Predict the 3D structure of the following.
Amino acid sequence: MEIIVAIKQVPDVALNIKVKDGAVVEEGLSYVISSWDETALEAALQITEDVGGEVTLLTIGPDKAAESLRKGLAMGAHKAIHVKYDDAKKTDSFAYAKILQKVLEGREYDLILTGKQSQDTDAGLTAPMLAEFLDLPQVTNIIRYSDVSAQNITLYRQGDNATEVLEMQLPGIVTVNDSLNEPRLASMRGIMMAKKKPLEEVDLDALGVSAEMRGAQGSMTEVLQFEKPESRKEGKIFEGDEADTVKQAMELLVSEKKFLA
Amino acid sequence: MTQRMWKNHDLKKSYDIVIIGGGAHGLATAYYLAKLGITNVAVLEQKFLGYGGSGRNTAILRSNYRTEEGIKFYDQSLVFYEDLAGELDFNLMFSQQGHFTLGHSTAALSGLVTRAENNKALGVDSYVIDPQEIKKMLPEIDITDHPRFPIQGALYHPPGGIIRHDAVVWAYARAADRKGIEIHQLTEVQDIIVENGKTTGVKTNRGDVSCNTVISVVAGWSSEVCKKVNVKLPFVTHPLQALVTQSYKPWLHHVVVSGTLHIYLSQTDRGELVCGNGIDTYPHYGMSSTLGFLESYAAHVLELFPCLHNVAVQRQWAGLCDMTPDYSPIISPIDEIEGFYVNGGWGTYGFKAAPASGFNTAEMVATGKTPEMIEPFRYNRFAENRLVGEKAAASVGS
């Protein structure tokens, strides 16, 4: 089973992300693999450990994106493809899907796995668009899989009242929910071995991605600006014994907040 | 209702002393000032207590330094640490498990022998042992000639060990608070007011405060604070990265350091391995973690302990180290500005020094005289060419 795992390098959302003049302040950011994509990588590793085959990581991004590929290789992926690209800010899902189509045409694979969305934009559009462009079947947001064979895979999607069970022909595209698994941590040996695994760099010109397909020109939407969500208002801590603090809280709810009025 | 560890206060218009920095050193200074009866003191912390180096270290304590000045000072600190849990009534989980500094070359061994002799002369328990003796205490270590840098011996320091770093911060904070010191978190000192060569107050994001004494105890941010009063001291800030692994059955019962490989590791009571590396090679204030650090650490630690190949890395972090040219701190009044004191330049030695640093700084400020113990760490030693060279005692040079 040859599996391609498409990953995106995103700012670490565990850190405080600052917005200034309508743009994200890049200074002080640290970058990680989008967490849903890590789930996809873990699924790919488990499938190949089960039925054999190789996992190839694929990302589009600037030089620093190579670090995320190395981290994925340290987790156990076999090789990686780095499509060098610096114009991320003006690029939307449509343009990314088009570039991915170019990268994947002519390559051999049975399954493409990726996160149901990326942690930075939460759009969740790239994989479905790519499936359309490559004319492949797609199943999104899976919580489980079973019965993996060379021709088919059974996939489970969680609905409000029931689980949807689908059988998909391969090759196809699957996006994953983070409840699918707990991604493994890289081991010391994995970190060492990652340095020696093949990392192929792909140049957009050599790939035949024209200027019209890149950045703002290749995108159908444009991000005008970022706005920071309003921060939560200061809380209030009541001091005293239980009866006293309950009384104070009730007074606040009734008199100031008009909660029970 | 559970009693809170320390209280919040409105910021007063005036204090006798303002301490900038709510880490282990700043809080220890406040605590020892209070013990001397000086309590009209505010500790101003721009983030939260222990945000800086106090929360970003590898919690190793030792006193096997190289110079007489360094050995005496760090040993005073270690002796303080031995009794600190009792004094502050807080379990600090100090484990005096013994500390190895490995030597991988004749030159390194000769340096370790010098340290051992200096340590012994000053009553610090520390001696050089051969690879077979190392193997007895660290059965998993590779003492063969297979690694690139085979182990030739080690400086063994029985009283060294590890402590719970957050607990030290919290314990000092609680004790200082109980003695009447005011702790102010999220209070950033934006400027220090100096009039006619005298310190008269600070400007903060919560308003101006007047005081006639300001002590800068901000480690990695020392240059930035000194800049506010146009004092240029030879601090250069480099980040230092560290990592923690998943928890494993206890197997490593001592702290292991290699100056040649620039790594050190210990195992916590919870079973994680806490691992540190050399400082980043160029100065900056970024505290992000890099893959380069992981790769370098993995390569080096596997030379010492090949059995760790399957150990999984849980988390990485970085802290700031305010390096000085001689790897010794600056604890000093600044002669040009009356009432302005600097406690910084801890480099990678800060956490182990917190009690002695706080104790002596408090005495220096309270009495107006620099105690003999920290006299060697005055800032003018650089101009007077009397350096206290401790780089040879570092495991982490760049």
Remarks:
- The mean pLDDT of chain A is 93.
- The longest strand of chain A covers residues 138-146.
- The radius of gyration of chain A is 22 Å.
- The interface with chain B takes residues 28-30, 67, 70-71, 74, 184-189, 191-192, 194-195, 239-242, 245 of chain A (CB under 8 Å).
